[in-house]
Each structure stands twice: as structure tokens, then as C-alpha cells.
Amino acid sequence: MIFLWAFLIGGLFCVVGQLMFDVLKLTPAHTMSTLVVVGALMDALGWYDPLVEFAGAGASVPITSFGNALVHGALTELQRDGWIGVVTGIFDVTSAGISSAIIFSFFAAVLVKPKG
After folding, report:
1. What is the DSSP string of 12-77?
2. Which UniProt keyword terms apply here (predicted)?
3. CA of residue 114 relative to chain centroid, distance
4. Rounded distance, CA 72 to CA 93, Å?
5. pTM of the predicted protein model
């Protein structure tokens, strides 16, 4: 049953993003930024963690989870270290994903020759 909910919830995020493209005529950058902010707001309201527990990868894989990670890390570090934790918590939680994206992008650029 968890696979069904992951598929439906993840698909719902995708449908919302596609509607933002088609109906609202937003650019990919505006759509991505909006979905990150939605994930951040959902975490600030305490809604994202229950959604991840319910839908698993359907909620933890889409771009909204990046906003969730930013706010979650900032709030956790705020409680532990005070106001400086707002800044350090953002980097602490998201650093592995961002570092991986940079490293894999570098290797892709080195190993793959563009056509043209």
C-alpha cells in the first residue's frame, strides 16, 4: 500500500508543477522556486513530516522536500545553537545533496561531449 501512496502523492506534486507550467504559464525556475517554498511552508506548519511518514518517497523525493530540508535543518539548529543555527542548519542538512549534485555534474561535464 505504501507504494500506491508514494505514487499518488509524488504524482500529485508533479501534477501541480505541470499545471503551474500549463495554466499559470510559469517558467521552470518560477515553478521550482514556488514548490521549494511550498515545501518550506509545509514544514514550518508541521505538515511535511507526517506526509513523509504517510507517503514515503512520494514526499521525500520531489523538489518540495528540499524546502522541507532547509526549514527543518534551520529550526532544529535554532533550538540547539540559537540564532546562528538558522544559517548553519540550512547547510548541515542539505550539504550532502548539493555536494553530490556538484560532483556528479562535474564528472558529467568532463566525461560527456556535447553534440554540435
Report:
1. HHHHHHHHHHHTS---HHHHHHHHHHHHHHHHHTT-HHHHHHHHTHHHHSSTHHHHHHHHHHHHHH
2. Membrane, Transmembrane, Transmembrane helix
3. 29
4. 8
5. 0.71
